[in-house]
Design brief:
The chain is an alpha+beta fold and about 200 residues long. About 25% of the residues lie in helices and about 25% in strands. The strands form 2 sheets. A 5-stranded antiparallel β-sheet has the order 4-3-2-1-5. A 4-stranded mixed β-sheet has the order 8-7-6-9. The longest helix has 10 residues. The mean pLDDT is about 90.
């Protein structure tokens, strides 16, 4: 198997090959409001599962699992789902192995608001990260990745489609599902400002 990247540590490499066998596994995440489906779709550079989350909550575990996972996921998160299914934790139930849709691709870019632990904060506290974890300035993201003009506020729609770069644990995922978390609503408090103002403020930090 060939890779277009190098593992930073031997532990990352070990985790990567250890977790390869989990790709395709589907779990029912247990919340106080019902069950949500989640599928391990790939691995990040550290070998941690990248999971497709289907945020609709069901009173009972759905029987039409194949149909649901063939649809577009609500969002992706980095989380070790098998740990949630451990008998001591009981935060999820393993439902079996299902094929990951052929058109699924691991995103190359994510967003992060680590300074505020994901809570709403002004744009200057947010960052765009690539698959390797490197931070991109908004200016570089807009001009060099999206190939758009800074004054063109349409880049904000692209930003709101970016998944979180943070690593979730079980309680964090459950809280997100119960609170109705969505990528569209997870945004900076000053996101409606002009793009030129946002980028100028970032450059002045």
């Amino acid at each position: 198997m060939e890779f277009d990247f190098e593992f930073k540590t031997e532990n990352d490499k070990k985790n990567y090959f250890k977790n390869l066998k989990h790709i395709g596994e589907v779990y029912a995440v247990i919340t106080s409001k019902g069950y949500a489906l989640a599928q391990i779709a790939g691995l990040d550079r550290h070998g941690i599962p990248i999971c497709r989350i289907f945020s609709e909550l069901h009173k009972d575990i759905p029987l039409n699992i194949e149909k649901i996972i063939c649809e577009e996921e609500s969002y992706l998160i980095i989380i070790h789902l098998p740990s949630m299914a451990h008998w001591r934790v009981k935060q999820a139930i393993k439902l079996g192995m299902y094929e990951v849709p052929k058109d699924f691709k691991i995103p190359q870019y994510y967003r992060d608001c680590s300074s505020f632990r994901g809570r709403p904060a002004p744009c200057k506290y947010w960052a765009v990260r690539d698959y390797e974890g490197k931070i991109l300035l908004f200016k570089d993201y807009v001009l060099n990745i999206l190939h758009k003009k800074i004054k063109d506020n349409s880049w904000k729609k692209d930003f709101l489609k970016l998944n979180s770069a943070s690593i979730f644990n079980g309680p964090a995922l459950i809280e997100a599902l119960e609170s109705g978390f969505s990528l569209e609503n997870w945004k900076p408090t000053d996101f409606n400002r002009e793009a030129t103002d946002i980028i100028q403020e970032e450059l002045n930090l």
